[in-house]
Each structure stands twice: as structure tokens, then as C-alpha cells.
Write a structure and sequence with these properties.
The longest helix has 23 residues. An 8-stranded parallel beta sheet has the order 1-2-3-4-5-6-7-8. Helix 3 crosses helix 4 and helix 7 packs across helix 10. The mean pLDDT is about 95. The chain is built from 17 helices and 8 strands. About 50% of the residues lie in helices and about 10% in strands. The protein is α/β, with parallel strands linked by helices. This is Amidohydrolase-related domain-containing protein. InterPro entries: Amidohydro-rel (IPR006680), Metal_Hydrolase (IPR032466). GO terms for molecular function: hydrolase activity. It holds the Pfam family Amidohydro_2.
Length: about 425
């Protein structure tokens, strides 16, 4: 890592060494933009989910922005203000150098890429492009809602003949969608699925939704799309029953078709922290409880520390065998004080064998560096506090770091890596 602390002078040098040198598996991130399109995405997006003028006019005044500026100034040996940083990062450094520096100091062994980010696929490098910056070849996460929308598009907008919207057409959508899900299950480059239903219609997914209920919403939605000049086909809260029905079909397919003899691919859920299109009132992890119970053998990963609902998510992971908690995106999206609070909450009841680190970095390589640097720093400080109050000893703290940064993801996603070989 870049010098965030002198390990030899740390109060617990062995723990500090483990925190800052253990290779990490990033279990959820997005692709970096191509060099020629990088300018289209404001660098402020690495520390804020705001958009437009809310991002460019105000985000730099946030505490996460100030922290990020200070840490990037240390990394790039420049002044810690964003005007100067942008001049250095976007004006003087080559794109390749930025990637090499950020990944070089991040100690990220492998990244699992959700590479179907809506609206940005053409602007981003493919997931395999990133292999040049990691020690191991990276893997894919398949976004279910993209497959759903592609299936609907192929049935109703795939030819010049206007398909009637009826139960037969709905079943064709299901068949096309489920077929693509099965292909992904059998694709060894894919290690997980992801759902962004939190953005589309909320986490209160009903696995008992009927095809008749789905069709009732499909009919006016397709009619509206055909009468509109807007060609964007995007599921939303008006299609909630359709969303729930199709997602349930995917979960049935995933949970009953393991890869090999017993590898049921995990499904990651966006929960909580996100941009302004997220339905915050329907983004609490507890809304997933019905789904969790309906598919008890389906591994479910709750993303982004479920912030601001971290304590609730930790509870779910503690009482349901098939639930894991990711603690990504809060680094670097919230303040250090907030990060410490969230990490303490996840440690309250969540088994340490069910915690997974990720960066949720996207577009810019600096997101990977900041997420790794901040997560390691916060882990060290929280674990030291727990040692001092005798909740755990230092050897237990060392093992916790190895679990949450590497071992847990390696096991859950069947990556077949060795921590000893990765050092």
C-alpha cells in the first residue's frame, strides 16, 4: 500500500502488516472506462453517487471528497485539492500509468466484474482487459435485469412484425430469459449473478407473483413503449409484478441447476446506498426476507454494507445460512467516521466468515485504490479497538482480516485461489 501508516511504528505491527499486505479479492466492481471515453465520466463519481450539478458543484465539499483528495495527493505526490488533482490525474499522467499505480498499491488479487452497467457498456473496457493489472485473471458477474430486458426486447421489438402481448408471448420472454440464465450458469467465466431490482421496483420481491399478474402490467407497458419516441426499454415500478415474476423464474433456474455437482452460483443484490434513482423506502434488506426463505439453498449476497441499514443486514446474515454481507462502496463513498460505524455494526452479530470486501469501483482506477486503502485502514482501527476491550485477541484479528479480504470470497465463489500462493 501507499504509506497510509508506518507498519513498524503501529501499535500492533503484526496486525498492521496483515491489514495492509494481505491480497484482496474484490467481490464486486465495475469496469474502467476506455482511455478515449474517460473524460465523459467526472472523477468526482469515485466518491459520490450524485449526478449533474449536484456532483460537480457540491460533491467536492463533502468529507469523503476531502479524505479522497488527501489520500490521492499522497499517492500522486501533489497538492490535496481537486483542481490540482484533476490537472495531474487527467492532464499529466497517462491513463496506463494511473491504472498501474492504483492497482499496484491496492493489493487486489482478482476482481469480479459486474460488466453490464446500464448505459456505459460501450464506453468501458472488457473485464479481461483488467487482467494486466491483477495477479489473477478476473471473472464476471451477470446482471439479471439486463438479461430480462434483452429477452423482452427480442420478443416484442426483435422484428418488423408486431407481436401480440398475450400469455404466450410472456412465456416466450420467460423462456428466452431463463435460457440466457442457464448459459451464464454453465459459463465458467461467470461466478455470480446480480440483481438491481432495488432500482427498478424495490426489494419487496414476491416469489408468489402469477403470470396473470405479470401480463396485466406487461400489456400497457409494451403499448406505451410502442407509442413513445423513447426507445429505452427499462423495467420500473410500473412493471413490478412482471419484474418479480421473471426474477423468480431466474432464481428457480439458478437454485436447481448447480454448476458441476454442487456449485449454486450466488446472487448479489444491490441494497441501500446508490444514486437518486434508488427507491430508498424499498431498499431495506429486510424486504428480502420472504425471498431468502423461499430459496433457502440460493446463496444471497447483500451489497454495499446495505448502508444505511448495515446492522439489519448483519442480523440477516447471522440467522440465515444462505445470506452473506458485502461491505463495499462505503469506501470511499462515506466519511471515515461513517465507515468505522458501519464496520462496527456489521461486526455486532454477523459471522466473520460471511463478510466479503469489495470496492464497487467504476470508470476510474482511483476508485480501486481508495476503496482498498480506506477499508484496510478502518479494519485495522476497529480491530485494534476490539483487542483493547478484550473482545478478541490479536491472532483472531489477523484471521478476521484474511477472511474478509480473501478467504470468504474465495470459498463462496469457488475461485480456487490460495492465500499463501498469492502473497
Amino acid at each position: 500500500m501507499a504509506p497510509v501508516m508506518c507498519i513498524d511504528q503501529a501499535e500492533y505491527p503484526t496486525l498492521a502488516k496483515v491489514c495492509f499486505t494481505t491480497p484482496a479479492i474484490d467481490n464486486h466492481a465495475h469496469n474502467i472506462c476506455k482511455e478515449e471515453t474517460n473524460h465523459k465520466y467526472p472523477i468526482e463519481s469515485i466518491f459520490s453517487e450524485a449526478e449533474g450539478t449536484a456532483l460537480t458543484n457540491y460533491a467536492q465539499t463533502s468529507i469523503p471528497a476531502m479524505t479522497a483528495a488527501s489520500q490521492l495527493a499522497t499517492l500522486y505526490l501533489c497538492e490535496s485539492n481537486w483542481d490540482h488533482l484533476k490537472e495531474i490525474v487527467l492532464g499529466q499522467l497517462t491513463f496506463e500509468d494511473r491504472c498501474k499505480v492504483c492497482f499496484g498499491y491496492s493489493k487486489i488479487e482478482m476482481v469480479l466484474f459486474d460488466d453490464l452497467l446500464f448505459g456505459a457498456q460501450e464506453d468501458c473496457n472488457g473485464y479481461q482487459w483488467h487482467d494486466q493489472f491483477t495477479n489473477k485473471k478476473n471473472k464476471r458477474i451477470v446482471r439479471l435485469e439486463v438479461l430480462m430486458e434483452d429477452a423482452i426486447r427480442s420478443v416484442f421489438f426483435g422484428s418488423n412484425i408486431q407481436t401480440e402481448v398475450n400469455i404466450e408471448a410472456l412465456n416466450r420472454c420467460r423462456d428466452v430469459f431463463v435460457r440466457e440464465v442457464y448459459k451464464s450458469i454453465m459459463d465458467t467465466e461467470v461466478v455470480a449473478f446480480k440483481s438491481i431490482i432495488c432500482y427498478r421496483s424495490g426489494l419487496d420481491v414476491s416469489p408468489l407473483t402469477t403470470p396473470e399478474e405479470a401480463l396485466k402490467q406487461l400489456v400497457p407497458w409494451i403499448a406505451g413503449l410502442r407509442n413513445s419516441s423513447d426507445s429505452t426499454l427499462r423495467l420500473n415500478k410500473q412493471t413490478k409484478c412482471l419484474n418479480d415474476w421473471l426474477l423468480t423464474k431466474a432464481f428457480e433456474e439458478i437454485s436447481t441447476h448447480p454448476r458441476g455437482s454442487d456449485f449454486i452460483l450466488p446472487v448479489q443484490f444491490h441494497v441501500g446506498l446508490g444514486d437518486k434513482s434508488v427507491q430508498l423506502t424499498k431498499s431495506r434488506p429486510s424486504y428480502l426476507q420472504t425471498l431468502i426463505e423461499h430459496f433457502p439453498n440460493l446463496p444471497i449476497v447483500l451489497l454495499h454494507a446495505c448502508y444505511p441499514f448495515t446492522r439489519e443486514a448483519g442480523y440477516l446474515a447471522s440467522v440465515y445460512e444462505n445470506v452473506w454481507l458485502d461491505f463495499g462502496e462505503i469506501f470511499p463513498m462515506i466519511s471515515t467516521i461513517g465507515q468505522i460505524s458501519a464496520v462496527k455494526e456489521m461486526f455486532e452479530v454477523c459471522p466473520t466468515g460471511k463478510l466479503l470486501w469489495s470496492s464497487d469501483a467504476h470508470f476510474h482506477p482511483e476508485g480501486f485504490y481508495l476503496a482498498s486503502c480506506q477499508a484496510r485502514t478502518v479494519l485495522y482501527h476497529v480491530l485494534v479497538e476490539m483487542i483493547k476491550i478484550k473482545s478478541i485477541d490479536e491472532s483472531q484479528a489477523n484471521e478476521i482480516v484474511k477472511k474478509v479480504l480473501f478467504l470468504n470470497s474465495n470459498g463462496l465463489y469457488r475461485l480456487g485461489l490460495s492465500l499463501e500462493d498469492s502473497k
